[in-house]
Fold this sequence. Notes:
364 residues, 5-stranded antiparallel beta sheet, 7-stranded mixed beta sheet
Amino acid sequence: MHSMFAFRRQFHINPIFRRIICIFSCILVVSFCFSQSTSAQSTQKKINLMEYTTQEEAELFWDSLTGGGMFMKDGHTISFRVGDPVIMLDYDKLAVVEAPSQTGGNVYVGDDFKNCIDSLLKTQAPEPYFRIGAVLIDPGHGGKDPGAVDSITVDGKKVQVQEKDIVLNVGKKLRDLLKSKYPDKNIIMTRDTDVFLSLEERVAIANNVQLGEREAILYVSIHVNSAFNKSAGGFEVWYLSPGYRRTVISSDEADDADLLPILNSMMEEEYTTESILMAKYILDGLNNKMGSVMTNRGIKEEEWFVVRNAKMPSVLIELGFLTNPTEAAMLIDESYLKKFADGIYNGIVSFIVHFEHSRGFTGL
């Protein structure tokens, strides 16, 4: 499962992150599990992390594709990767444990991993580190580019329906909801009228939004689907394939050019992780509002231009199929368009709460 969202933050290598990179580069790791030994014991009891998370009423984000995950409880976060004995505690301490392993769809950790959790939960949770400073809403197409076009019968008359009008309608509804909820955040639209913007112009808008040092931007591209098969239907959320690698950080943004390849790799993985989670929240929001009347097609991955070239986590949402007569009727019905906007809004709000609570995941 994958997704396509956009998100960027002002990039500066803080001292904590620089220290972490140096530690990794020297293969010198210090454990902060307090009374626990840093040596990994292969004879340790295996603990099912999924079951343990439920038992502890905690939260676990796990990406089976990258092997990375985060265990979160009471404002604390432990970041880990399957096969890697180094884990990160609250984004500024490292520990060595028996490497987490995966069997089937489950992740297993040793007693020392659990001991790190127990020790960490006895400490004070860190203050929020990053916040979402802006959300960029990108209604697809516009002007001379209508997007998908079809005709449906309304009250016995043929009516032409264009994608550009539908997504602009939903985008404006979403903007108003977010502005009301977040007066302190910059809620931006690439277009709020029927004008044409090239893909390059849309990406440039996203990448040039001014942010504070510890602020991030989310990029949401809204579209409507079409297919030769008129029975095809449903909503879906896309994100950039992890196999595609962007240059996230340019040479003039990094304090140390020697660290650039490492930083780009880490930030790219971060964007993918955040995009997947954002896509999941948005898909859940759409499913809650539209799942009873429209098929949930899930989270998917692709190398769309607007997502591929945005230096941030990014998602692209397909609201439904204009070529499906039943869905086309919904896509011109104001009550359903409001449900689409509400669903996306609820997903974004859920992501923002999670993101700001977890200090932007890695706090780079």
